[in-house]
Amino acid sequence: MTGVSCTITDATAVLTLENGAKLNALTTGMLRELAAHLDALERQPDIRAVILTGEGPKAFCCGADIAEWGALGPAEFARHWVRDGHRVFDRLARLSKPVIGALNGHAFGGGLELAACCDIRVMTPRATLALPEAKVGIVPGWSGTQRLTRLLPEPVVKEMALFGRRIPAPRAEALGFAAAIAEDVLAAAHEIAAALSDVSPRANELAKAMIHGAVGEDRAAAIEALGSAAAGASADRDEGVAAFLEKRSPQFDGL
Length: 255
Fold this sequence. Notes:
- By secondary structure, this protein is α/β, with parallel strands linked by helices.
- Helices cover 44% and strands 16% of the residues.
- The protein has a six-stranded mixed beta sheet with strand order 1-2-3-5-7-10, with helices on both faces.
- The longest helix has 20 residues, at 74-93.
- The radius of gyration is 20 Å and the shape is globular.
C-alpha cells in the first residue's frame, strides 16, 4: 500500500510518505493525500508544527513514480502531472505553520523539490541531494529550477541538473540547505518543533508570510494576507460589517 499518513503528537503533526518499496516515489494518489492533509492541518489552530519525512532508511523521496508519468503524452504530462504537482508543492510551501523536513534518506528529483518546500531541513549523514531528471530525458518540473535556486547557489543547482552530481549531507549543511545532520532525523525534527511551544504561532505565521514576500514565494498573496489581517483587526472593519448588517451608513473613525 502507498499513501501519506498523518500522526499527531501534542502540537506536532508528522506526515510520512509511505511507498518504501519504491523509495517513496510520489504517485498521483500520494499527491492527493498530501494535499488533503495540508488542507486539514491548515485549519487546526492547535497544531504548531508539521514534520515531513519518508518511510524506511534509504530515501526521503526519490521523486515522481516513473511508472505513472512515463506513459503520458506531452500535453497531459505538462497540463496535469506537472501542474497538479506544482499545486500540491505550492500548498506545502505556503502552509501557514512551520514545516520541518526530516530527510531520512536520499532526496532526488521531485523529492528534492519537495524538501525545498520545507522551512527548515534535517538530514541523515548518508543522505544526498540530486536532480537526475536529465538521465530519463526530462527536466525538473516541480520547482527544481525555480524555488530551489532561491535556496542554493545557481552553480550548485547546475551541478545537479546539468552534470548529475550528488550533494552529500555535509555539503548541504555548509550551503545552508540543511540546518543540521542527525542520525535520528525524526527525533531532531521533534526537538526543533518543541522549541515552538515558547513562540507565538500568530507571530510565526506573519513572519513566514513576510519572508516569503521578500523572496517572491507567492508575494501577491502574502502582501494581501498581511494587509487583510491588519484591516480585519481594525475598529473600522467592525463598524463596516455592523453598518452593512444594520443597513445604515458606516461611521468610520480610522481606528
